[in-house]
Specification:
Length: 113
């Protein structure tokens, strides 16, 4: 992001993967890159990402999310838990935040501007 690299360590966060054409990245990586505070409610499988005036609320396995109280639908991929790690569709979230995400299939990297 902004010329800096974020490397996701498989032993800590799990490897990013592609689901239905969407890049799924560990929640912690997204929180770090976009500087979000994370609130996780395991009993509800609810994720809340907070940064300044921006709040995003989503649930594991559901395509409906709330961005500052407005409902938005994720397409083709939803928040998921694999091997105890929560994954989110990074490109769609970046778009909701007004951040351009570019996928480079040759290097298998996502670039944010």
């Amino acid at each position: 992001m902004n010329g800096l690299y974020l490397h996701v360590a498989p032993t800590v966060d799990g490897w990013p993967y592609i689901e239905n054409g969407r890049v799924m990245v560990p929640l912690r990586a997204i929180a770090d890159v976009f500087e979000f505070e994370v609130d996780w409610k395991a009993s509800e499988q609810k994720i809340t990402l907070i940064k300044e005036e921006k709040t995003i609320v989503m649930y594991i396995g559901k395509s409906e999310i709330l961005v500052d109280g407005e409902e938005v639908l994720l397409k083709d991929a939803v928040p998921a838990i694999k091997k105890g790690v929560t994954f989110l569709p990074v490109g769609q979230l970046a778009g909701m935040l007004g951040i351009k995400a570019e996928w480079d299939s040759k290097t298998r990297t996502v670039k944010f501007n």
